[in-house]
Inverse folding.
């Protein structure tokens, strides 16, 4: 009798332990400038749902991504490693040429690395993918459920948010039925082009003197926020919010081309503003990062640096699972680790061509942010597509900025502070050495 009672108590304890594992919801916006949120002080863009998330969580205003481009940026989040490690440095191997075949070795290399998706599912989690996903199908990525079937950058998954949340709500119902913790990857194709916002939002932001591309983009940012509100309502309505860690981050920055019309270099590139997407300037690599976990994290605006490579160790720590050894990021739940970090690093490579087996073959920039200072080192990696115009304008080999005084990088200071340049250069070389550079 005693044996049966002990076994029953053990079973109950194990069940309680399993149910106590937090759900993880990762929200990723797509092509959004770091300034373009209500909680970051934008005077026109209103994001009440993300404002609420930021207000009840830890907001890292100084967050950064590993690369200012969606595919390598997402790959670094998933693996917790820099692009030179996992090999995904751009969006394609050779532009639009023979994409499927040329991508096979890139994906094969990528999938050899551990990911937080596979770590969670190996430890009892269900995992749903929706939205942007480049590395094959959702199954290839280790998700138990999902939308993307394996075509370039997301295929059917890209309808999420733009056409409702039913695949997600169905998954939430399934997870509840299975009584299992879950990971939700919500990476809608928003506010990414095509900029075709709902009429009520476009009308709100259209006004005399405002360029059409700016009005459409502002409306898209608000559309993305509306879909986040729908997602939060679904979590709240199911009583899931209290045991769910919500993480928000953007894959890379963006700014409308017309906002840079005065720069003669902008004529080389019409897609978006120079110094935004695909560039190592703040509007390309900086993003707010939010961690919200009611009852577990006290709301705060953190002054510390945060990075996309921190997502893997942070998720592992929240789930009570050991992360792989050797990850370069930190657990953002650990305040001591946050305080001790003083520098973050990243790169920018060519946009639409990669050199498999030689990740630095397309290197355009290495950079670091250390305290108030930021150093850019310019390189001349191979760039074989029209996207090279994004980088061609910038010939200066070294750029130094003080981000506290000059957050939009208007005043280049390398000649005035050679000691800072040398100190930060050594940091970059230690983190990411490049032969002959």
């Amino acid at each position: 009798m005693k044996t049966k009672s002990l076994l029953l108590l053990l079973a109950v304890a194990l069940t309680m332990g399993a149910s106590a594992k937090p759900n993880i919801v990762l929200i990723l916006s797509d092509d959004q400038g770091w300034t373009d949120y209500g909680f970051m002080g934008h005077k026109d863009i209103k994001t009440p749902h993300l404002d609420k998330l930021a207000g009840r969580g830890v907001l890292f205003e100084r967050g950064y991504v590993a690369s200012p481009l969606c595919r390598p940026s997402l790959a670094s989040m998933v693996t917790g490693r820099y692009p030179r490690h996992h090999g995904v440095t751009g969006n394609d191997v050779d532009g639009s040429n023979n994409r499927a075949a040329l991508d096979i070795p890139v994906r094969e290399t990528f999938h050899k690395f551990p990911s937080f998706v596979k770590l969670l599912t190996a430890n009892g989690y269900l995992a749903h993918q929706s939205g942007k996903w480049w590395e094959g199908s959702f199954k290839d990525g280790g998700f138990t459920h999902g939308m993307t079937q394996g075509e370039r950058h997301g295929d059917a998954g890209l309808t999420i948010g733009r056409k409702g949340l039913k695949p997600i709500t169905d998954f939430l119902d399934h997870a509840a039925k299975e009584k299992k913790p879950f990971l939700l990857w919500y990476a809608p194709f928003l506010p990414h082009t095509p900029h075709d916002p709902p009429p009520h939002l476009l009308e709100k932001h259209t006004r005399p003197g405002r360029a059409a591309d700016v009005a459409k983009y502002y409306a898209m940012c608000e559309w993305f926020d509306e879909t986040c509100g729908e997602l939060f309502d679904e979590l709240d309505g199911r009583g899931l919010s209290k045991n769910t860690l919500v993480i928000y981050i953007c894959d890379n920055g963006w700014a409308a081309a017309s906002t840079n019309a005065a720069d003669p270099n902008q004529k080389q590139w019409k897609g978006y503003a120079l110094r935004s997407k695909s560039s190592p300037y703040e509007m390309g690599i900086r993003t707010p990062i939010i961690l919200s976990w009611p009852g577990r994290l006290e709301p705060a605006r953190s002054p510390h640096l945060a990075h996309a490579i921190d997502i893997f160790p942070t998720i592992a720590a929240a789930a009570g699972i050991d992360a792989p050894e050797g990850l370069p990021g930190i657990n953002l739940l650990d305040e001591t680790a946050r305080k001790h970090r003083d520098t973050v690093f990243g790169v920018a490579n060519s946009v639409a061509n990669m050199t498999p087996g030689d990740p630095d073959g397309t290197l355009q920039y290495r950079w670091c942010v250390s305290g108030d200072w930021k150093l850019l080192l310019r390189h001349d990696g191979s760039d074989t597509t029209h996207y090279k115009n994004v980088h061609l304008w910038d010939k200066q080999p070294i750029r130094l900025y003080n981000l506290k005084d000059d957050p939009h990088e208007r005043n280049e200071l390398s000649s005035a502070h050679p000691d800072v340049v040398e100190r930060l250069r050594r940091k970059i070389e230690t983190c990411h050495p490049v032969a002959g550079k």
In short: The first strand starts at residue 23 and ends at 29.
